Amino acid sequence: SATYASDTETLVLELPSLDTSGNVLTDRHDYAAFYVSSTTAYRLVEVDPISARRAGRSTIGTMIASLAFTYSDPTPALATKVTIEVTASTTVKGQPVANHLMGTVRLRNR
User: What is this structure's pTM?
Assistant: First the structure.
């Protein structure tokens, strides 16, 4: 599988692995990567072998013109917040239509 790292176009989150009851598995981690390829945004989840979390890639958006991540620290692994900006665009009745969304989330890694 491909290797992903957090940068301006990709967000990778390290998540605690879970058992089938939803309990955290100590010292085990799963990873979720969010990225865009062409005009489609994806979420890719890779899991620890004993995690109950479901692995795989899913589409989370289409008609994506841009997806950007801005971290509160120049080193993404040290960031406590990330701002996510996404622009989706299409053509309706021959006219271009775009929607720009932006939000900031706090990372619970500290």
Answer: 0.89
Predicted local confidence at residue 33, as pLDDT: 97
Per-residue tokens: 67? 């997806």
- How many angstroms separate the CA atoms of 60 and 96, rounded? 22
Structure tokens given for 41:
């945004």
Q: How many CB atoms lie within 10 A of CB 53?
A: 17
Q: Which amino acid is at 97?
A: V
Determine the Cα–Cα distance for residues 61 and 26; give it in Å rounded to an integer: 33
Res 25: pLDDT: 97
Q: Which of 53, 54, 104, 97 is CA-nearest to residue 80?
A: 104
Residue of 84, 85, 82, 81 whose CA lies nearest to 100: 85
3 state SS of 44: strand
